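Notes from hallway chat w/ T.B., transcribed later so I don't forget. T.B. wanted the structure written out for a chain they're using in a teaching module, and asked if we could keep both sequence and structure tokens in one place. Agreed to drop them here.
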Amino acid sequence: MARIAWVNLPNGKHVEIALTYVYWVWRPLSQKILDKVWIERTRKIETLSEAELDTIREELKENLVEWDLRRFVAWNIKRLQEINCYRGQRHKKKLPVRGQRTKTNSRTRKGKSVAVAWKKK
């Protein structure tokens, strides 16, 4: 099992697909990397030599991927919360940030709906 950018890549997959297991590497980026290092896209991960894996690792170092990118995004969200801007407040309250409606939708962001009991009079 190959390990690239702290991620175990599955052996039975083509290299083009297996690279998408790394955070923020999608098909176009994986295709571009494989074209740069002259590796066929349809080869399986287990057929790659260690030297070929090293060349892929070197190409991936040019991009922000996996933990570096996750940390960068977390710092940006934390900065927005600290300066108390509108987007930061929405992040704090766990509400949608980009202007979506919240009256009926946004269950993914807000969580499961909770029934409200009637008050006694």
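Follow-up for T.B.: The chain has a mean pLDDT of 92. Might be a good example for the class.
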